[in-house]
Amino acid sequence: MAGPRVRQQEENSGMALSGPASMTLDTNLRDRTISKLNRRIVLFAFICFIVNYLDRVNIGFAALHMNEDIGLTPYIFGIGAGIFFVGYLAFEIPSNMMLHRFGPRVWIARIMVTWGLVSCGMAFVQGPTSFYIMRFLLGVAEAGFAPGILLYLTYWFPARERGRATATFMTATVLSIVFGAPLSSWLIDAGEGLWGLRGWQAMFILEGVPAAILGIVAFFYLVDSPEKDRHWLAPDERKWLIAQLEAERRAAPQDTRHDLAEIFRDWRVWLLTIVYMFNGIAVYGVIMWLPQIVKSLGNLTTLQTGFVSAIPFIFAGAGLVLVSRSSDRTGERKFHTAMGGLVGGIFLAASAMAGSPLMGLVLLCICAFFLWSYMGVFWTLPPQFLQGAAAAGGIAAINGFAQIGGFTGPYIVGYVKSATDSFQLSLLALAIFPVLGSLLCMTLKAKRD
Predict the structure, then answer these.
(1) CATH assignment of 28-441?
(2) Domain layout of the chain by residue ranges
(3) Residue 168: what pLDDT?
């Protein structure tokens, strides 16, 4: 009798040990796999997005001298800065569907080479008409890059890890300004006379070439999906990742959309589009005009303007990282997204009413922390009800139609500034939109991951 009891105790002990041991093994495998993906995918995408965003917004620094050189009024500049998003919107969904069909490696490379060449071409605008045309073409060229990367992340990252990966990628939007603001300003000064060009022209060329080079690198570097990977992951890591992603697809809610046509009948797609657009109105209104707003605060040089303009975006980067970590830790998505817009909008309005330039800058930094924080968490919401072709088209549709905010924000600032000669009223007008967006976001039904 003792023998069987001893064996039974040993078996029970072994079972007790095997559970934690198995969990530890799974945890180590997960951590090792995600760490590799962060190094292989997120880091490369992060670098590419820094270049992407810099080529999109460096027009704000060029305007310090370009507007006078080619005769652009604040109203004309506001339209030209925003018309980029018209081209972006027109080709966003087709571009992401092409990525879904041909694969991320080929299509992301194509996008990057094209926008790099067009960005270089911005150096040769001669007046309002050519300015409008080149900004529109730059939008066409860049269309699909950001939503393409966001879709690409869903091919590789399980849902619980996706918020931090997305936030890290999105942090590039602020770091491109933190480093790009002084870089662009320095290039404008240092590039004066280079190749017989004005400084702002040299800046466009020197900041456009890296995009084309990275596009060529992307063609040889990226891997479309875990199923096609033979180099990035070890066999056990690849097997675990494929199993995780497949389990998530099987566990998707019954109302998950899979076909492209279905997304246009789903009210959740349009609700998230409006939320993202309203935040974008404030974000792009601030980005495109901040160098001129800062310049108006005092007698600053171009380089000094660049350094001061970068300060709020240091706080924006911190907000992106910290809020996404909180969201990943709790699995809560909707409230984190909504609070970013609400608090950010309130402090944007407060910065406009500040009694001194220094206090205005401090309040704008707090605004940036919250207003940009939503970017990483927001993109964890659409995959909760979109998969397959619907995910490709839906993410592109949300990002694309929301780019109307990228046109509207700079236009509002330019219009109000021309009519009232006041940046204060412009910022107050911008602040309304993220607050409204946060209220709409709270009406969405979202689950915890």
Answers:
(1) 1.20.1250.20
(2) 28-441
(3) 81
